[in-house]
């Protein structure tokens, strides 16, 4: 059938967004190699999401060309209408698999960055909820009609539930989960011992997922615009945003990692004396659990962090010294020199005790 204006516009818009998403995934891979960071579960789920996103694009092209999406239902043949509902069902299956994968990839990235036990448990529970809901909605999609062929062949006697309401219920859950994922890292970031400008910048990096929340909300709105009397024509906006939302989600999930390719955009705020680490959103081989938090600490824990920072500084200093400097450093002190020795014992047991002895 001839390509309609609406059909052509959908294909053009979604193709551009999918191309941008795939470019983001390729840059993510490049960033991992440049920073010498191993691929993790978040990366593999991202790659799988990219494949499913490509599948949705192929479905959209077929949906427009042989399914009549964007055309008035009265102008379509019975065969074309059946193709419309067949591809509609296939598109639902693909979306119901893609959406939870992208969300779990987001959370898995957070789990690589924030390795504090309490956060690990919280994020694990969230991933389990997303996975269980995704599995349930995927199975329910296959049970929309009994027999399933009654979904696209209306001459078959069968029972079906309202697919539009079914999609809306799932979309409401998606919106709630998107906001939960958006809020998940905020308490961790604001407890870091960084300047408030740095904390705000870090929240901005993670808050780009807010674009996905807006897309999810708008998709709920356009789902109410579908007219059962002319589904093939009025489903235009819903179809468009069904493809826009996962494209934006996949792109946003890659942006914190891609940021590592552009060091000029790293945090430029002045470091505090007790915050010696850069928060590595682009290098998840070093987790934020290594960064001191601003919550109240015992004197022993403060000494422990000071010891760790001093140890890092000593290691860096020893690597930067020339052989002549090292030999002069190891020579016996002159009679007029003042020698300072510091002995630090770190004992990790039930008492969590740290002893420090200074001798001048």
Automatic annotation (TrEMBL):
Q: Which domain of life is it from?
A: Eukaryota
Where is it localised? Answer: Membrane
Keyword Transmembrane helix appears in the UniProt entry: yes
Q: For this UniProt record, give its keywords in alphabetical order, as a comma-separated list.
A: Membrane, Transmembrane, Transmembrane helix
- Any GO CC annotation of this UniProt entry: membrane
Domain (Rhodopsin) ranges = 27-262
Q: Which residues cross the membrane?
A: 6-31, 43-66, 93-110, 130-152, 172-192, 204-226, 246-262
Topology within the bilayer: Multi-pass membrane protein
Ligase as UniProt keyword: no
Family note: Belongs to the SAT4 family.
Q: Per its UniProt record, what PANTHER family does this chain match? A: INTEGRAL MEMBRANE PROTEIN (AFU_ORTHOLOGUE AFUA_8G05510), PTH11-LIKE INTEGRAL MEMBRANE PROTEIN (AFU_ORTHOLOGUE AFUA_5G11245)
Record protein name field: Rhodopsin domain-containing protein
Q: Which organism is it from?
A: Aspergillus mulundensis
């Amino acid at each position: 059938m001839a390509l309609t204006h609406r059909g052509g516009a959908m294909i053009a818009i979604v193709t551009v967004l999918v191309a941008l998403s795939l470019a983001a995934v390729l840059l993510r891979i490049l960033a991992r190699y440049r920073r010498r960071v191993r691929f993790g579960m978040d990366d593999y789920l991202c790659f799988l999401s990219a494949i499913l996103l490509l599948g949705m694009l192929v479905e959209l092209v077929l949906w427009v060309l042989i399914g009549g999406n964007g055309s008035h239902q009265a102008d379509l043949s019975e065969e074309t209408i059946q193709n419309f509902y067949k591809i509609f069902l296939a598109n639902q299956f693909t979306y119901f698999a893609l959406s939870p994968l992208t969300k779990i990839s987001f959370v898995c990235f957070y789990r690589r960055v924030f390795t504090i036990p309490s956060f690990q448990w919280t994020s694990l529970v969230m991933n389990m909820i997303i996975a269980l809901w995704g599995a349930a909605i995927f199975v329910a999609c296959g049970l929309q009609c009994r027999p399933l062929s009654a979904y696209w062949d209306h001459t078959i006697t069968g029972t079906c539930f309202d697919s539009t309401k079914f999609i809306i219920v799932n979309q409401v859950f998606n919106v709630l989960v998107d906001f939960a994922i958006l809020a998940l890292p905020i308490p961790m970031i604001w407890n870091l011992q960084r300047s408030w400008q740095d904390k705000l910048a870090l929240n901005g990096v993670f808050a780009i997922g807010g674009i996905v929340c807006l897309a999810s909300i708008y998709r709920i709105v356009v789902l109410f615009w579908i007219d059962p009397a002319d589904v093939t024509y009025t489903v235009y906006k819903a179809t468009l945003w069904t493809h826009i939302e996962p494209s934006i989600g996949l792109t946003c999930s890659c942006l914190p990692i891609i940021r590592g390719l552009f060091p000029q955009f790293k945090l430029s705020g002045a470091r505090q004396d007790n915050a010696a680490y850069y928060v590595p959103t682009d290098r998840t081989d070093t987790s934020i659990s290594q960064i001191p938090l601003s919550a109240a600490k015992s004197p022993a824990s403060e000494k422990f962090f000071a010891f760790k920072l001093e140890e890092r500084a000593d290691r860096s200093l020893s690597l930067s010294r020339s052989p002549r400097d090292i030999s002069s450093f190891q020579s016996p002190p002159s009679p007029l020199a003042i020698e300072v020795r510091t002995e630090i014992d770190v004992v990790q047991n039930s008492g969590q005790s740290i002893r420090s002895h200074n001798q001048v």
